[in-house]
Amino acid sequence: MKSRLSLLSLLACCTSVALAEKLNFQYTLSPLMNICFLQNIAENIQAITEVTPLPGQSQNIQLTVNDPKGRQLASQENQAKLRYQFTSYVGGNHQVCVLNRENQQVSFEFMIQTGVEAKDYSNIITKKHLRPIEVQAQKVQDMVRQLRQELSYLVANEESLKEQNQKIKSRVLIFGVISVLVMGASTYLQISYLKNFFRYKKII
C-alpha cells in the first residue's frame, strides 16, 4: 500500500511539473495604464486567475478575462482579491487584463492556475468519501486526461497550421504564375511597339 501511494505521489508530482499549470508573480502598473497577459489553454480545461493588490495598495483596479475569440468572459473591480474561475470552451490564448484606475502606480500579485491545479478536490473528498490514496489516483487520472486533451489540441493546431501553409503555398504559386504571364505579355507588347516604331521611322 505504501509503495503504491508513493508511486502515485511521484507520478502526480512529475505530471504536475511537466504540465506547468501554475504561474505566480508580482507586477507594478503605472497610473491609468492597462496590462494584458496571455495564457494558452486547451479546450475544456479549468482555470483560475487571481489579482490581489499588495498591502497598502489601492484596490481601484479592474480585471477582465477574454477568450481567444475576443469575447469577454468576466469583468471585476474594486475588491481586495479579484478572482475568476472558468472552463475554456475554446482552446487558444486567453487574455487576462488588469487596468489601474488610480493616478498613482499600483503593485499587485498575479496568479493563474490551469488544469488539475485549478480543480477543488475538497468537494470530491466530501461527496465521495475518498481516502488519500484514492484522491491521488483521481489526480493522476485527471492529469492524464488533461495531457491527452492538450496533446489533441496541439495536434489539431499543427494540422491547422499545415492547412494554412498549403493555402499560402498555393497562393504564392498562383501569384508567381500570374506575375510571369503579366511580365511575358508586357515584354511582348514592348517589343511589338518598338518594332512598329522603328518601322515607322524606317530604321529597320
From TrEMBL:
Residues 34-114 form the GOLD domain. Coiled coil: none annotated. It is a single-pass type I membrane protein. Residues 1-20 form the signal peptide. The chain crosses the membrane at residues 172-194. GO terms for cellular component: membrane. Keywords: Membrane, Signal, Transmembrane, Transmembrane helix. It is found in: Membrane. The keyword Acetylation does not apply. It holds the Pfam family EMP24_GP25L. Belongs to the EMP24/GP25L family. This is GOLD domain-containing protein.
